[in-house]
Design brief:
The protein has two domains: about 180 residues, no CATH class; about 90 residues, Macroglobulin (MG2) domain (Immunoglobulin-like, Sandwich). Helices cover about 5% and strands about 45% of the residues. Strands 4, 5, 7, 8, 11 and 12 form a six-stranded antiparallel beta sheet that branches. The chain has a four-stranded antiparallel beta sheet with strand order 1-3-9-6.
Length: about 280
Amino acid sequence: MKKIYFSLLAMAGSFAMISQTVPTCSLDAAFIASNKVGVWPDSATNFVSGTVGVPYVQNLTVKVPKDTVQNPVRICFTRFEVSSPSGVTNYDLPPGLMLSSSTASVVSGSKLIFAGNANNCGSIYGTPTAAGTYTLQLKVDAFGNPGLVSSTCPSSPNVSTGSNITTQTLKYYIIKINPAPVGLKELSKDKFSVMQNEPNPFSGSTKIKYYVEDQDAATLTVYNALGAVVYQESAKTAAGDNAFDLNATGWAPGVYIYTVKYKNQVNTRRLMVSHN
């Protein structure tokens, strides 16, 4: 049972507290199809790194098991609750980040509640404001109904029932935040560079500035969280500073990836669309 609890808490989340909506999360198909339970990414894979001033998002898939057996007892799980431990502020997440889910039924005040025998998801998102390596702390309370091994667990347990079977604090998930990139004017003029879009987050329009060494073609491509192309534009550059004016009116709120390709070079960044 200990193995189940340890694997079941990878929900570290982070979001900027600046009028952002929770990104729409999705289930990882390969993890759901596997015979594993818990959270993906797991503690060995851990979470992606971030950069100061650049929107951050990490999708999380959560699989809560139906039960566990410790002869002569079968425990039918009703829910797992994730909260910040006493004396810990916001899970010890990097400043500017929070933990939440786009699934309304998962969010319960300051806690996240994941039903037994169910798959769900969450996100780590926001805009980091301070560089460093942060070890998260997550309190996990497992609730369930003990019975005989011969008993049968319900397919859809009542999440408001069950006794607190165990409480653990996980301290092995890490998020590394890198310093902000060097400003455009500080870069040598023989390099291709792309700046973070401004404003960001935004609704409506934003500007993506970039620098190139001579006249050629540059292509802007924007991808959604699933990797699908939602926008593409090409332009002839001038030597020096250039910019794409991106209009995202009507786009779904959330985090997108954008690339600017110039000759054989590609720079990638993230942008965040808020409610229009």
